[in-house]
Amino acid sequence: MKNNFNSNHLRAIGSVIHVAAEYLEAMEELLAYAKLPQEKTGVIMLSDDLTTDQHEAVIAQLNLTKTALQNFSRFYAIDKETQSLNKLLNIKAVRLWEDLSGAEFERLIGYGPTDENDRAGYHSFLQPLIELSQQLIQITNP
Questions:
Q1: Tens digits of residue pLDDT in 93-105
Q2: Do 29 and 78 sit in the same domain of this protein?
Q3: Do residues 10 and 60 share a domain?
């Protein structure tokens, strides 16, 4: 089978392949995360509500999907994308900082009346988080 795609088409196909690969990796990470002792994982508790059969079926399906994606990639000669761990961490740190910085007390007013007495306590938790996220950005700044 031959294709007549130009370089623009191939870039678009490559994007689809890379995004799909990221989703598959995220799903594998979730399966691994769910197996961790949840009391040690922080503020997010993940309920592992998969049966053993479902867990095995998901892993098998992920492997089949990855193989199909690799075949797709090979056919169109889409190169593997090498990504910098530092750059990915920096991107996530910047997004964390943006979300935390946008969580000012004033935004809570949009969800209903707030008590001004709660402002200081809220900021006492939020401000250190913003500063910690800024430090993450500095550490990972490429």
A1: 999 999 999 999 8
A2: yes
A3: yes
